[in-house]
Amino acid sequence: MSNPRIRTILRDYDFGLVWQASGATNFTDRIGWWYHKPMKLVGADWAGSTFASKTTTFAARAGKMPLKEDRFTPKERFPKCIHVSPLSFARGAALNAVSLSGPGLPFLIQNAGWQDRTDTFWISIMTLAPSREERIEEIRSIVAYLLQHKSRFKGKFGIQLNVSCPNGGLNPKDLIAEVMPMLDILRALGVPVVVKFGIDLSIEAAMEIEKHEVLDGIVIFNTIPWPKLHPAEQVYYFGTTVSPLIAHLGEKFPGGASGAMILERLLKFIPELRKAGFKKHINGGGGILCPHDGLQVLMAGADSISLGSIAMLRPWNLSPTIRFMRKIHAGK
Q: Measured on CA atoms in the order 149, 214, 280, 9, is the torsion positive or negative?
């Protein structure tokens, strides 16, 4: 393995060494999720990490997680679209099929407080429109709306283009054809752009997408769609070969798995990608549940890491992991 790559600046924006996985602290960390308050009892918080908003579509979307009237907070304390059992918790795994529930970009621009932030952060966007043409047009609408309001932002933001939702229905073979025209459109914003991928990203597709001059880096990996887990993994982490979410959501929404099973895939893929010649920024996340996990991802060739499920599955490790990574950064 190589030495850690400490490259946190994209263009002239410093995003730090530790990023929040999109949605780790909701659409705004001013609200966060209900379990963040009891987390503080074990000394866990997100201080020292870079905020990344929960992924939003342009229009409001019901998804599978009903929201309260504030349009930020889930109606259910334990949403039926998220599954964590004693077994999966013990083994560091969770399952979700939130399916991008959210109030839509215009509402968030007006109410999430993004414009008042003075730090550098990420806005995560996605489209789930049924056709390629409609998806490209939705990205165009997102960019046009952001351009209208960009001058009101006190701090700097970058864009995470999420093409990895396990419930999105995008054929992985179409990644290049989907992403390239979206990057063309995102050029107009003049901000750093990274693309978030799932485990279906191939070395060949990554190398081709890297050629686009608008791309500053990639974020890997998002959750693993349930059908792509090996049956032995399904049983080990969740005790069954039938997704526990099906009972509540139906067979069309088995969800995506997050946690420990992603880390081994990440540690295999990143060195292969670097060996193939990928030079742009790699943010590695998924299954980082302790400081040593984060160090392994850096040593594998990532430039930065993302933390997400650690807050739900190993909250006592959240602050120590962030502090450990920041010490590495300070000692570069």
A: negative
User: What is the spatial distance between Cα 151 and Cα 128, in angstroms, rounded to a whole number?
Assistant: 28
Are the beta carbons of 326 and 297 closer than 8 angstroms?
Answer: no
Residue 170: the pLDDT is 53
**Residues of the chain with confidence (pLDDT) below 50:** 1-4, 166-169
Q: Are 45 and 331 contacting, i.e. CB atoms less than 8 angstroms apart?
A: no
Neighbours of 236 (CB within 10 A): 16
Q: Which residues contact 297 (CB under 8 A, 6 or more apart)?
A: 263, 266, 267, 270, 284, 285, 288, 305
pLDDT at 220: 96
Q: What is the pLDDT of residue 3?
A: 42
Verify cis geometry, omega within 30 degrees of 0, for the bond prior to 58.
Answer: no
Question: For residue 52, what are its two tokens?
Answer: 């990344």
305: region left, alpha or beta (phi > 0 left; psi from -120 to 50 alpha):
beta
pLDDT at 2: 41
Check residue 167 and give its pLDDT: 45
Phi-psi label, residue 4: left if phi above 0, alpha if psi -120 to 50, beta otherwise = beta
pLDDT value of residue 171 = 55
Residue 127 is given by DSSP the state -
Cα dihedral sign for 77, 81, 84, 85? positive
Alpha-carbon distance 263 to 287, whole Å?
5
- Do the Cβ atoms of 300 and 263 come closer than 8 Å? no
Give the strands of the sheet with 93-96, arranged side by side: 82-83, 93-96, 256-259, 224-225
Sheet of 18-20: strand order equals 18-20, 304-307, 281-285, 217-220, 193-197, 157-162, 121-125
CB neighbours of 274 closer than 8 A, spacing ≥ 6? 2, 282, 301
**Residue 77 burial (C-beta neighbours within 10 Å; 0-12, 13-18, 19+):** exposed
pLDDT of residue 331: 74
Six-digit token string for 28: 């705004």
